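re: that chain from earlier
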Amino acid sequence: MTIVNIKIETIWQNSIFMKLFASYSVSMLGHWFDMVAIIILFGYVWQANPMMIALIPVAYALPHVLLGQFAGVLSDKFHKVKIMMYADFITAVLTVCLLFTNTPWMALVIISLRATVNVVHTPAQQGLIKLVVKENLIMKAVTLNGTVNQLAKIIGPFIGATLIGLVSPKICILINAIAFTISAFILLFVYLDKEMKRMTTVPKNETALIEESFWGAWRQGWLIIFKRRVIVVSFIATFLGLTVIQMVDIQFPVLFRELAPHFPELTGWLMGGSGLGAVVMIIFLNRFETLKHYGWLIGASMLLLGVGFGGVGFLKEGFNVLYPVFLCFIGGLGVGLLTITTQYIIQKETTEHEIGRVSGIFSSIISFTVLASPLMGGFLVQFFGVIPLYLSSGAVLLLIGTVLVTFNTFLFPEQKTEEDILAVDAK
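^ sequence. v structure.
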């Protein structure tokens, strides 16, 4: 009997993806160094008022709300690597400009410009994963990116805060400029890669999207979503869940200044617990090649988030500090599960020429919750108090999760291959 050695390809052997992964890792770490520096600059160096500080997340999120959908069209119509490379170079230049800014208003303008440039990243990156990664390795690619994202949220602020304590907040901004420059050069090598050029060569029979008008391509993106129940339901469920989460997430300082006024460092511990939970879940999901039963997965993420946020509402003065940290760890598990499941759905339920638009629309929808939900949460706290808000938010999340799990079969029909999707759209 002849023994044949079959080489099994892994995600680590995909040289193009690994370069993209390196670029993403460097830029994400730099982003979180920059984030903690900006917060300290506004809050402690410039002594900005609360309203000015509240505009920081608006400056980051508003461009994604307004332009995310159109960035998706651009990423579907043009060379994704080139778009990301230019965006990183411009981001590095704007970040250097931020180093010479000494007023909050000018800083907000530059932050908004950077966010506008970076709107293209999410849809372009999703499209590149679809393009360069084999279908059986998509789950590995998605979970690797998710792990780096969550680790950067933990490592970046921790090391950044330490550096700021030793030197200056602007050293972290400089690190971000260097990080995006490195990321851009990595993308340049990807762009020059011969295999990448072969993949991005558009056959003559597939030039319809490029020739289609910008607004026509945008309208087609929404039609793609509404034609597929899996995408519609997952987007609606995620939007509702994140709306509830964002309402209460920002209210942690209000809750704990009532219950533990002399323990300000607890907020940082809770963020760490949440991040650790997300990392643990993503590493666990990395073991799987595919995901099935989307309703169960998204529903389970909502149940975990409901337990985490709702449980916080039961805290009383003199609580054991490990209890809220554990609850945030549970909530973090839900965040990790929700993030990976939605990204996987976008990858699996779209074709190569649709994913940018669908991803851009999703990014725009999610960014809207970042803008509107904190305001809604602040309004509700004024009238009902912070503890009732946490309890009711936990109950709503548990209800959403229960509905998704119970009606999984109806809400999420059997997943289809790319050929099935094209056949359905052709009818």
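Residues 1-8 have pLDDT under 50 and may be disordered.
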